[in-house]
Specification:
The complex is a heterodimer of chains A (259) and B (462). Chain A is mostly helical and 259 residues long. Chain A contains 10 helices and no strands. The longest helix of chain A has 19 residues. Chain A starts with a helix and ends in a 22-residue tail after the last helix. The relative contact order of chain A is 0.14. Chain B is mostly beta strands and 462 residues long. Chain B has 2 domains: 425 residues, Beta Barrel (Porin); 29 residues, no CATH class. Helices cover 10% and strands 44% of the residues of chain B. Chain B has a 16-stranded antiparallel beta barrel. The two termini of chain B are 45 Å apart. Classes of the chains: A mainly alpha (259), B mainly beta (462). At the A-B interface, α1, α2, α3 and α5 of A face α3, β13, β14, β15 and β16 of B.
Chain lengths: 259, 462
């Protein structure tokens, strides 16, 4: 029996692999996504996707309530639904400084499935399509001049009101802010050298233009020019050696978006 | 020692091993769940077997690397300690045992005197993690350190490809004997040695035991490709009377490489292949306080005088080797979140002739196991069904006159596990299992010995 197993099983594995990988790729599977959600997501986001899982009470910031279809980390304009790629980027990278870990180890197939299930919590996903992602112009080189201009823009747009003069998240309004669900929310300490959604220049630029839906962080799409937005990016990057800086311009530095 | 007595001792050892097996596993570690707010199912395919996320978390030195790993980021009240215990009823039946009333089938049953594991693990500071597992606390009062190590991650260039672990650690086996889903019997290929009819001249190497030494490991970002190399003193032989004069008392090596593949579609959600092997050495001679070479240890205390047979630590010599190596193939069918997971491991092994007293030649064997774990895709993933077939086939007996199939084994375990609750604080499961082992020729008059075990337990951690 043992000899048969030793020879038959590897052959069986090979056969299964060959036969089992020949099906066509489909979009995320909601039922499988539900099981994945129950395995990995339930304790924070809750059975109903309302962000009230058993662990939610103990942590800040609070887990996302999926029912409104409101997501912070998007490539789409303010108010729009996120794309599947936006949601998967969060799953891959996690959110630094929060209890949302990286789910990179799950693989693309499982991430698509759980995204399909998460979208069932909000009727918006059935009724609307995400708007086109915002255009991000090529990044100019990180220079002392762009940092100086960015510091001026930081004052011009009154960022210090929330983030503080030293950008440590301690502005005059810092302790009065609440998110759309009424939870107290603290402005981000930009000197940490990490941004929740990814550390690349594009990630920071995207926040200025798209805003963080559901939070007091607005979209500056109508008031900040692309050049000013890049200057602001460089000013923020100057606050910590932890940020990768693009000294030559053009393509984003390697490592962008990785935890 | 007669073969019959040896057989009886083996059976007793088997039963004792069952209790120890229940005490020894590192299992799941709820302290991590408490720290990160994740359920046990996050890291365990079917508790306590790790899934991809859990394997990656372990490879990363118990870090999620998003600014919440360091203990100073946790609540001051957080303490990285968990408790694991398994109250259980066990019934064991062993055939062909010699007694003063003749050959008998021995059976016993009852609620066992369970031991507990204190699972202490976490991150000391960025990229330095630890694990300490005191085990015991049963009515015999004994406690020992099942495992303890410090792990240094990303030692070179912030790369995951070079990490070092120091201490008493579990070597990275194709299926962990410290996180088994089957409780009744261990994996045979990790600890088997031929020649049950011969006394051993060296310690019986068990690859499944935690080993004292160093582990060097590396992996890609998601642990789909990984390697582990352990350098250790086999079976923690560093302070025994037979320890050798070498840098490691019983210098031993283990290596394991694994590669996982994830098809983008189809009913095979993942498959993996791996190679593993161990080469261990034991001293078979030693200096003594008074025995001269012409006397054996067994007789010199009577001839030369009491205490003359006392072995002097650190003087062991004439290292003799035992080796085992093999392959693994794993496949996950259905969705990875609720798969039918098949794991086949094949092994070959060899013990040097001089590891036995009176052997004619080296002992060699082959063996393996096929393990299946099925997590039905029902709501909340409470159930798992498992089974395993282990086999051992001797290829060459150390004693020429021994029957060629002496010590051959067939072992089957099957069971079901229902997790009543798993939260980010605790986990409790009901575990029912039946297992049977048949070993050729080790019973009275060369008869086979069959051991059956029924196990019903409540496995919980908090």
């Amino acid at each position: 029996m043992s000899t048969r197993i030793a020879t038959v099983f590897p052959a069986l594995v090979t056969l299964l692999i060959v036969a089992g990988t020949s099906h066509a790729q489909s979009a995320g599977d909601v039922y499988n996504g539900k099981l994945i959600y129950q395995r990995y997501c339930l304790s924070c986001h809750g059975e109903k996707g309302n962000g009230q899982g058993e662990f939610a009470e103990w942590i800040s910031p609070k887990p996302r309530d999926y029912r409104q279809g409101t997501f912070k980390w998007r490539s789409t304009p303010s108010g729009s639904l996120p794309t599947d790629a936006d949601l998967e980027r969060v799953l891959i990278n996690g959110l630094y400084g929060t209890y949302m870990p990286s789910w990179n180890a799950l693989g693309h197939r499982q991430r698509l499935d759980v995204i399909a299930y998460i979208k069932t919590f909000s009727p918006r996903f059935a009724a609307e399509k995400p708007q086109a992602p915002i255009a991000i112009p090529p990044e100019p080189p990180y220079t002392t001049e762009s940092v100086t201009r960015g510091a001026a823009a930081y004052k011009k747009f009154n960022c210090a009101q929330c983030h503080g003069d030293a950008a440590q998240g301690d502005g005059p309004s810092a302790h009065e802010l609440k998110d759309d669900w009424g939870n107290p929310i603290v402005p981000y300490d930009l000197t940490q050298g990490h941004v929740k959604c990814g550390n690349g220049g594009n990630d920071i630029y995207r926040v200025f233009i798209a805003g963080l839906s559901g939070t007091p962080m607005p979209s500056f799409a109508d008031s900040v020019s692309p050049a000013e937005a890049w200057d602001l990016v460089h000013f923020i990057q100057s606050l910590s050696p932890g940020y990768a800086k693009n000294l030559t311009g053009g393509a984003a530095p390697s490592g962008e978006g990785t935890p | 020692m007669s073969k019959r007595l040896l057989s009886l001792l083996l059976r007793i050892g088997l039963c004792a091993g069952l209790s120890l097996a229940l005490a020894a596993p590192s299992s799941a570690i709820p302290a991590f769940a408490r720290k990160y707010g994740l359920r046990c199912t996050t890291c365990h395919e079917s508790w306590p077997v790790l899934n991809d996320f859990g394997r990656n978390f372990r490879d990363n030195g118990y870090q999620l690397r998003l600014g919440k790993d360091d203990v100073v980021t946790a609540e001051p009240a957080y303490w990285p300690v968990s408790v694991h215990i398994t109250p259980s009823y066990e019934y064991t039946r062993v055939t062909n045992q010699q007694t003063d009333q003749g050959t008998k089938t021995l059976s016993s049953g009852g609620v066992t005197d369970a031991a507990i594991d204190l699972l202490m693990a976490g991150v000391l500071t960025k990229n330095i993690s630890f694990l300490v597992v005191p085990t015991g606390f049963a009515s015999d009062g004994n406690v020992h350190l099942e495992s303890y190590w410090a792990d240094f991650s990303r030692l070179i260039g912030n790369s995951d490809w070079f990490n070092v672990r120091v201490g008493k650690h579990e070597v990275d086996l194709p299926a962990s004997p410290h996180r088994p889903i089957s409780f009744a019997f261990g994996y045979l290929v990790y600890g088997y040695h031929p020649g049950p009819d011969l006394p051993s001249a060296g310690a019986a190497f068990d690859l499944g035991s935690n080993q004292l030494g160093f582990e060097i490991s590396g992996h890609d970002q998601t642990s789909m490709t990984r390697y582990n190399v352990s350098i250790f003193s086999a079976n923690n032989d560093s302070d025994s009377s037979t320890s050798s004069a070498h840098g490691l008392s019983s210098p031993s090596f283990y290596g394991h490489v694994e590669k996982y593949f994830r098809p983008s579609s189809g009913f095979v959600s993942q498959y993996a292949f791996g190679l593993w092997g161990a080469y261990a050495n034991y001293p078979t001679t030693t200096y003594t306080l008074g025995c001269t070479p012409q006397y054996s240890l067994a007789t010199c205390s009577q001839i030369v005088g009491p205490g003359s047979d006392t072995q002097i630590p650190g003087t062991g010599g004439n290292l003799q080797s035992t080796s085992r190596y093999g392959t693994e193939a794993q496949v996950w069918l259905g969705q990875l979140v609720a798969p039918l997971h098949l794991n086949f491991v094949y092994a070959r092994g060899s013990d040097s002739k001089n590891l036995y007293l009176g052997a004619d030649r080296a002992g060699t064997w082959q063996g393996g196991f096929l393990e299946a774990i099925w997590v039905p895709s029902v709501e909340l993933l409470h159930w798992s069904v498992f089974g395993r077939y282990d086999f051992i086939r001797n290829r060459q007996q150390p004693l020429v006159s021994s029957p060629s199939d002496l010590g051959n084994q067939n072992q089957i375990s099957a069971g079901v596990r229902y997790t009543i609750a798993y939260t980010n604080r605790d986990e409790v499961a009901l575990h029912a299992e039946y297992a049977t082992n048949t070993e050729r020729g080790i019973g009275f008059n060369g008869s086979d010995v069959k051991t059956n075990v029924v196990f019903l337990g409540v496995d919980f951690l908090y």
